[in-house]
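Thread: Newbie trying to understand structure tokens

Hi all, I'm a second-year student working on a class project, and my supervisor (Dr. K.) asked me to get a predicted structure for one chain before our next meeting. I've only ever worked with sequences, so writing a 3D structure as a token string is new to me. If someone could post the tokens and maybe explain what I'm looking at, I'd be very grateful. Here's the chain:
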Amino acid sequence: MVQSQSQTPGIVVMGGSGRMGRMLIDVVQASPDCRLVGVTERPGHDWAGRDLGSCLGGADIGVPVTDDPIEVVANAQAVIDFTTPAATLAMSELTAQARAVHVIGTTGLSDEDIAALGPAARHATIVRAGNMSLGVNLLTQVVKQVAAALDADYDIEVIEGHHRHKVDAPSGTALMLGEAAAEGRGVSLADVADRGRDGITGARERGAIGFHAIRGGDIIGEHDVLFAAEGERLTLRHVASDRSVFARGALKAALWGQDKGPGAFDMLDVLGLK
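---
Reply by user tm_fold:
Sure, no problem. This is what the structure looks like when written as tokens:
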């Protein structure tokens, strides 16, 4: 049975003028399984108060861009959010009130920020992941399995590369991969993470999980997990060559969450890997 437009979930995209925002708009508009019902922007932005169509240089399409998201969220079934920690926390209060699915791809969230999402998850479905790519989330499972199979004689290093405009490091994806490796080894990442080496640092500590961040040009996302031992090295690698992989994963999460109750989920839940 084909769904009518009124039956398909209405989706709000946060931060529509940014690179990810525009990609999300394109992916949502191209899908027959949902409707774009609103776009948010920060207060004072040139797009605020206008129709999305005119913002993009065309005719009005009936999709409002607003810096006051209360009304558009109240009429939505899902919000896709790749913005900032402060904006994400503020939006979580609105999605909880609207009982809308909140898909969070925001990076740079602290442990305190993540804990602050807890109250919203008691009322609405939250799907949060450091990376919405389906391939990356499958990679986390492989990393966990390899880390469990190889002992601490194999040094683990996570190397990630992103464009010059990225403001946080290590990336959310790198931390996901580090967490997977630590879980495979049965340790806490907080206890074994080594996030920076400079100067006379001494020998590498056995069992440490190292992180290295590369920033330059227009790199969309490259992640390597290196397992290095005496006489051999194993590298697990994911390369994103098109930002749409994150948008498609986020849309999949928004649609998956439509029949779920309140709770905190991640992409492994969406992929049925838990």
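A couple of things are worth pointing out once you decode it. The chain has a mean pLDDT of 94. The longest strand covers residues 221-229. Feel free to ask follow-ups in this thread.
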